[in-house]
Design goal:
Helices cover 46% and strands 13% of the residues. The protein is α/β, with parallel strands linked by helices. The strands form three sheets. It has an eight-stranded mixed sheet, with helices on both faces. A seven-stranded parallel sheet has the order 15-16-14-17-18-13-19. Helix 10 runs parallel beside helix 11 (247-254), helix 12 runs antiparallel to helix 13 and helix 14 (315-341) runs antiparallel to helix 15 (350-369). The radius of gyration is 27 Å and the shape is globular. It starts with a strand and ends in an 8-residue tail after the last helix. The mean pLDDT is 90. The chain binds iron/sulfur cluster.
């Protein structure tokens, strides 16, 4: 169900405040099957409650096992105000909506009106589905078969959310042709507007008290609210960000600008398809489309073809050499627009296409001709042919201060990993958060008993050529002790592959490698295969939950400093230096400390979990800055002696060492 959760008829009277809900003898103690009083949960809930009531901003780090989800949901519900809850992932969104809210509904005597909101690309566009039946847009048997699935489902679904169609492949190319992105949407002019899944989601949202969104949707909405079209999230009194350590990156991507050759290609395809369907294709228009396509291919081919993200600060030199190709593409886009303006009795669907064309042309001009010091310009090659030109704000703190914190009475940021050495200075500075309250709520777990942190001292320095071979040998030993049941996490893809090749044939356990199957499929396989080992990079450092024995060991190869060659990191480092700061201490170490805490956080997910954490990078014990990492991690038992690791597992992974 997507909308309001219904109260059970025999509900107990609701609590009226957080203490009556979470406190000893409170509602939760009477109803929760495994109730255990968690002082941290009550502390957080009261902090959230008073921040909403007294209109203050709040930042909270709540260690794993605190029960932080309920600690913010309950005060949000009790406030009676409309509150947005924004999560880092769609998975967490769904967990809140399908698990936590229905659970809470049992403890409230009134209906909790809640709406799960996702971005437009998650929903089917009914109009596109109906058009697809008339227009041959499908290519190949696979697309025809996927279309049949979608067509059948569209007749019965109440939400139009693709998450419902389990049999549709994750990378279905048909879905991209039928989703409800703004690109071709005619809004109120559409014949399906009243029945449109987005219209219905907006109606549910307008009638709800709790809106569950994700950071991407939230910041896309915040960025769009500035424009004429308006946002999609209705007005709200407060916003709560869970997994708030991810906000800087997500906000940066929405307050920047970007254009790709694929966007131009998609636009031309859509224009062409509409012209055929609505019978306004003329030889002139067809030739303008073909010409623009050629000019776009020529222009984008001029950018360097290196893998990954590359900084690009030489627009002037580029224009001096390739100005003709750039200007020709602009002329091509202008010519196409003139052709479209000549269409007699233009159909409504043409309006969003022309708007898109202008937007792409303006973005291209901005990217090539603006020289804003606040932005870092970079190029990314994706797949075989994708070229993305991006501009990202180097520092989002001022933007967030202006557009978020200054506009809202209450913004609550929470995460299990947002403090460094027990302080919020780093997060507050990066995000532009001022005059806020804060709370540091310790974990509910006994880390001294549950986890052993091992830092081997005998391995070569991580930067030396011998490290990979030595790390592989060490990993084999550790996996033997733990009998597999491990995540081996890497800071780089190439290191992951090299170590995997050295380790995978030496042990009798199933070894999974990131990239060989979709993330969710690998995770399922890991959970269902005894003694399994997964080799992975940052995709598995967060948002992964494997409670129990199946995950008893997490090995990390290096301190997770962000790659200094990444253009955004490079620009941030340069800016901090220019402002008189020390980028290593002010940015790189705190960022890596939070990432390390995230990675290790995969291991202990419940009070009964036990296991080993190993970091193969002894800079943490040999360098002065290592203390910052130690001070930021939970209080794990600690050793540098390998025999103690062996003993730890021999004793059933129970109890730490001295
Ligand atoms: S209103 Fe837009 S998204 Fe909805 S069905 Fe119509 S065209 Fe599709």
């Amino acid at each position: 169900m997507q909308g309001a959760a219904k109260p059970a008829s025999n509900n107990p009277p609701s609590a009226t405040n957080a203490r009556k809900f979470f406190g000893r003898g409170g509602v939760l103690s009477r109803w929760h099957p495994n109730y255990e009083f968690r002082p941290g949960q009550l502390e957080m809930a009261e902090a959230v409650e008073s921040a909403i009531e007294e209109r203050k901003h709040l930042i909270v780090e709540a260690g794993t096992g605190t029960g932080k989800t309920l600690a913010y949901l309950v005060p949000a519900i009790l406030s009676g105000k409309r509150i947005v809850v924004s999560t880092g992932t769609k998975n967490l969104q769904e967990q809140l909506f399908y698990k936590d809210i229905p659970f809470l509904q049992q403890h409230f005597d009134r209906e909790i009106r809640v709406c799960l909101m996702k971005g437009r690309a998650n929903f089917a566009c009914r109009q596109k589905i109906y058009d697809a039946e008339k227009e041959p847009i499908l290519s190949g048997m696979e697309e025809v078969s996927d279309f049949k699935i979608i067509r059948e489902w569209e007749r019965t679904t109440e939400t139009g959310d693709r998450a419902e169609i389990l049999q549709l492949p994750e990378d279905s190319t048909v879905w991209a042709k039928l989703d409800a992105r703004r690109d071709t949407c005619t809004g109120q002019k559409c014949m399906q507007f009243e029945r449109c899944f987005l219209t219905q989601m907006h109606q549910r949202a307008a009638a709800s008290d709790i809106l569950i969104v994700n950071h991407h949707l939230f910041f896309a909405d915040l960025a769009v609210k500035e424009e004429d079209f308006g946002g999609i999230i209705p007005d709200y009194a407060a916003v709560i960000f869970d997994e708030a350590h991810e906000i800087e990156e997500v906000a940066g991507s929405y307050f920047g600008a970007g254009i790709s050759n694929f966007q131009v290609l998609d636009l031309l395809r859509d224009v062409s398809a509409l012209a055929r369907r609505k019978l306004f294709d003329t030889p002139d228009l067809t030739s303008a489309i073909i010409q623009t396509q050629d000019l776009s291919d020529q222009f984008f081919a001029l950018f360097p073809r290196v893998e990954g993200r590359t900084g690009f600060s030489s627009q002037a030199a580029f224009l001096a050499e390739h100005g003709n190709a750039y200007r020709s593409l602009l002329i091509g886009l202008d010519l196409l627009e003139s052709n479209l303006s000549l269409v007699h009795d233009a159909p409504e669907e043409l309006i969003p296409l022309v708007r898109r064309l202008r937007f792409l042309r303006d973005t291209l001009k901005f990217w090539m001709e603006s020289n804003t010091r606040e932005l870092v310009y970079w190029i990314e090659r994706r797949g075989k042919n994708g070229i993305y030109l991006q501009a990202t704000p180097i520092d989002v703190s001022k933007l967030l201060e202006e557009k978020l914190f200054a506009q809202m009475d209450t913004v609550i940021l929470t995460s299990a990993t947002i403090a460094v050495q027990g302080s919020f200075d780093f997060a507050q500075k990066r995000l532009g958060l001022k005059n806020n309250r804060s709370a540091l709520v310790p974990s509910h777990f006994d880390y001294q008993k549950q986890a052993l942190l091992y830092i081997p001292q005998h391995l070569p320095d991580v930067r030396s050529p011998g490290f990979t071979a030595a790390a592989a040998d060490e990993i084999v030993d550790l996996l033997e002790y733990s009998e597999g049941r491990a995540f081996v996490l890497f800071t780089s893809y190439s290191q992951m592959k090299q170590v995997y090749e050295r380790v995978s044939f030496r042990l009798p356990y199933e070894m999974l490698l990131q990239g060989t199957a979709p993330r969710t499929a690998l995770l399922e396989q890991f959970k269902n295969t005894p003694n399994c080992v997964l080799f992975a990079t940052s995709a598995f450092w967060q948002g992964v939950d494997v409670p129990g024995d199946q995950l008893s060991c997490v090995i990390i190869d290096k301190l997770p400093f962000a790659a200094p060659s990444d253009p955004i990191v490079e620009a941030r480092v340069a800016l901090i230096r220019e402002q008189g700061g020390n980028p290593f201490y002010d940015y790189q170490i705190p960022q890596a400390a939070i990432a390390l805490k995230q990675g290790f956080g995969r291991l202990i997910r419940s009070k009964t979990d036990r296991g080993l954490l190993a970091l193969l990078d002894h800079r943490i014990t040999s360098q002065r800055y290592g203390q910052i990492f130690f001070d930021s991690l939970p209080d794990y038992a600690f050793t540098i002696k390998k025999p103690e690791v062996e003993r730890f597992f021999r004793n059933g992974g129970d109890g730490g060492t001295q």
